[in-house]
């Protein structure tokens, strides 16, 4: 590869590609690389330092039993965890069906017609509901929150509300609504205290006063309780964690949101809908997928561009495997354990605050709460200390009678006759709120009860998709690279997966070691001074970084600094995040070479000098180039009193070569799901830590329940859990430990080599839109198809779909420039795979040339009709080219052929006729 480019070694290539002014002069300060056996032994030792207790803390997190068939065949299966976001729906039908199952589950249980493809967690889902309420209210900006809502959700609401000028009013709503105008109301069902309250009159009053009502609901409880949609809720949010997704010290978990009819086009994030393919067959796709941050940009109310797909798939499959009867049985067992627990406490003379509850009992023990919690801990059980006089105890799927007996002992109650109590204790659910409506009636929730059937269903869905386990995924900007098995190994170990996020920290010493050492590693790599691992997506990291900048200016007595400069090439989340941070976006032009237009930047800085808050730049640029002027850009903004936010999306082109915190940037978010090998999982999970220079460190996120997770007096939380998606941090930690300083540096060098080799191979066939010094690119390159489109009518869509016939996922389409393909081969792909891709693209160029020369029909050709399915080949063949050309454009495909399950899908039709849950089975007839 080096010989093809004319460089003697990797150092020579990097010296030519990376500006000397930003390159680091010293190696990374990291531990020596570990072997895989040594790494696993080290992880085992760290796991042993986590103390595994029975968790009865509650607060929105519950232990659960993940069916092993789902653990092995989803969570531990690279066909599921290495897949990318299903922007190419023809090769994503399996995971799209799986997510549609999740959406249907949520819609059925909540009693509302439309749910999205998941959100990041319950707290941010509540914040998204607040944003919908504000947007729908058109002027009213007070949001009313019941005091029995989860405290972490209330805290995240306050973080999100303040920059937008929204007032969060927390009140006891048990007695009704206070006076005043509100855009929305948030209720918890059941409440954090465990109480199940009949709020129908409250909901009706709120709606009569013009407010949208959001209910944060427990999905398992909804199998027994009347769904919020039936009591008038406009929006329902929550978490699907207890549907088979481990607690993992806080995440990742699939948050959910569902809305009533009329609000579906205000939903944030992604929605899986049903459309049809070129033959009229039903087919799944992402509907309305770009309307929010990509189209509305600085007018967006949400910056969410991801979902928790892998976790949503797990939760949906949990429902598929158990079915409605199984879920009700689990919920009934959970409730009966809570009822028996309560009866035993009463028999022992303990006063209970609420008589109606689902899974959580709140006990009043004046002056004894601390000692009761300590006594339970001595017996291996964590309870929730509410205050000095109250203890809450939550039951879950793994609760046993022996756990209840230990709790009774901790309260000082004599051991009751458990069987007698179980027979005589009445249920504690209000009769007026018992569920009478059915749910999960679609056949998919009734077919796969046996492990054999479930195993085959999961395999069948996986076989419909193209993931990284089959082929390279050459997506520019998205960095689809190896997620090594040894890095993934520890996340399913119970010592990591079953730790509650609010467990005492002395029970999580292994986790804390990983967290603190990973923070140290990332600071060494980036050159920053402080970091927060709390943001559980890149979008949340962006928001946290911009909120830190906002707080810094305010602390300096300059609240007028609200202008955020953003290059026109930026990802849509940049503008959306700035708007959510209370900033005003001013767009900076890009020059003809793709770099930031320095003349326009000078002009904009001068115009907004007194109000400039920040600039958001991506480096290397979104165009895949190491811009020579990055230090000048930083200096210019600093001279005007602004801060530099450097988007870390492309950090994998800097690791070991340059440190953004040392060449002028003040803050970056880092995508651990890209550069540091946490898998994309079909569109999530993600982790987006925010790293800052020392002057911004006091403003990093904190957490109300675990102050050790952030700086004293820092900013509010941006995620529900103290360290966000802590359950997958061992993956990134293991990656750094396996690679060491030399390995990480070489990975960056090879990524740059791969991109430049691929660009050189394809340049004779497709123009490379932007290059830097010496005609080199960074870690990705952009192919310009626009001249070919004008000449032949062949579009980027045609090329993307034709690549499916060659067995490839398409590159990034029409971003950052419409009509182009952005390609990133990464360091993980070997020469054979890169050459195979180059051969496919070269062959496609030959097919385009045939159209240009008139030897191939302009409107009826292999590109326009791609992808080709097996069903097409088996039927009549009306096309002017052969079946062999359609399906086997290269001989090697005869030995290993991926067949797309559907033809090209009609996206516009799916947006016009939005279907967001499993369609009736007769839809598939014929």
Automatic annotation (TrEMBL):
Residues 747-868 form the Glycine dehydrogenase C-terminal domain. GO terms for cellular component: cytosol; glycine cleavage complex. Residues 1-411, 448-701 form the Glycine cleavage system P-protein N-terminal domain. Keywords: Oxidoreductase, Pyridoxal phosphate. It catalyses: N(6)-[(R)-lipoyl]-L-lysyl-[glycine-cleavage complex H protein] + glycine + H(+) = N(6)-[(R)-S(8)-aminomethyldihydrolipoyl]-L-lysyl-[glycine-cleavage complex H protein] + CO2. Its cofactor is pyridoxal 5'-phosphate. Its EC number is 1.4.4.2. Pfam families: GcvP2_C, GDC-P. CDD domains: GDC-P. The keyword Oxidoreductase applies. The modification N6-(pyridoxal phosphate)lysine is found at residue 674. The keyword Magnesium does not apply. GO terms for molecular function: glycine binding; glycine dehydrogenase (decarboxylating) activity; pyridoxal phosphate binding. The glycine cleavage system is composed of four proteins: P, T, L and H. Belongs to the GcvP family. The glycine cleavage system catalyzes the degradation of glycine. The P protein binds the alpha-amino group of glycine through its pyridoxal phosphate cofactor; CO(2) is released and the remaining methylamine moiety is then transferred to the lipoamide cofactor of the H protein. This is Glycine dehydrogenase (decarboxylating). It comes from Wenjunlia tyrosinilytica. The gene is gcvP.
